[in-house]
Amino acid sequence: MNKVLKNSWALFLGMGCIMMAYGFQGSLLGVRAVQEEFSLTSTGFMMSGYFIGYFIGAATIPNVISRVGHIRVFAAFASLASLVILVHSIMIHPLIWFLLRVLTGISMVCIYTVAESWLNDRSNNKNRGSVLSIYMVVLYGSMGIGMFLLNFSSPRNFQPFILISVITSAALIPILLTKKKPPTFKKIKAMNLKNLYEASPFGMISSLFYGTIQSALFTLLAVYATSMNFSILEISIVTFLLAISGSIAQLPVGKLSDIYDRRKVIIYSTFGAAIFSIITIIVSRQMYLPDGLATSKTWFYIFFILFSFCSLPMFSLILAHTNDYISKDKFVAAGAGLQFAFGLGAMSGPFLCSIFMDLVGPNGFFIFLFFFHSIIGIFGVYRMKIRPTIDNPDSQFVAMPQTITPAGIELNPTTEPIEESENPSNNNDYKEDNHKNKTNDYPIK
Prior knowledge:
By secondary structure, the chain is an all-alpha fold. The chain is built from 17 helices and no strands. It has two domains: 1-177, Up-down Bundle (Growth Hormone, Chain: A); 190-445, MFS general substrate transporter like domains (Growth Hormone, Chain: A, Up-down Bundle), CATH 1.20.1250.20.
């Protein structure tokens, strides 16, 4: 552990600053959009720009890194992210903010790719689990801290935007001054959606719908809270609870999935999240009224924490479930394919959720979460009737952030180094390969 920190402290420190700024930025833009009286659909459309940019960047950035190198690419896109947030403060319009969010998404996926491939290069089979654990703590912890910076100054002022830019720029200092040699970048291709569906229909479909849920959850929670007349401090608390409680839940939920049928754990988790979504609406009651008239938010916080406990570990559960039906040398390619499906769903999440909120009011936010979590659960029950459960000793739950890239998935200690795989994403030979390795032990239908 000490060796991991010694070799990668600059990267962890830089990523901590990046995630602090990212957590702050998401809440700030949501609150400011409500204060500027953007319509809910305009706000959802604007927020979805981040995931469109993330999706575009995921497909193009690996080629840029291969040509230019890690250090230069990280510096360029961190600088772009720092610049873009400043433009938000001087050009206030939903369409302009949408375009700026696209640029932010491209910048962030580049930063994640560089950081995770760098960490992967610094780790080995013995410490990859420790590296991934520290990385998750840095990501979620820094993001949670960043959400409290919303109290720094009024979202209507320009100072919060400057602070985000300063923190983002500060992330460059430790990374650019490190003496460590940057890694040789390895491009990882994803398993295409057809082959991914053949390997695990439930894994691919649930990843698609879960992307829709997650993107709406993290981008519109601050919008919901502002619409419900939460104070700035209360908005910071509820967004902090989302990030921290969800990360804490990963380990106990993951342990359950290794002991019991993983699909059942996913189904119970998603139905649990759906139920707590409805209960959260019920306990919200008159929270939106002015001080003195508003009902207590205590029960809201409690049931929202329970919702986060059920919902946030699901991507890691879905990844582990998919790995149950494939051989070990396919894990990284399948994970990249799940991220592709997740990204497709994420692009539409904020916009679809904003339509729900526009139709039925702020609580449309939780109705949206209830609806899509229920779809995942219903499809899971259907799949359990069609396909038997598989016991794959190579597959186990490993907690991973939803922002993980294929390079980060390779940090999973259950995966093999990418050089040892025989082009795991070779789509034409996928079915033939199934007869040559352990995939043959796991039925496709």
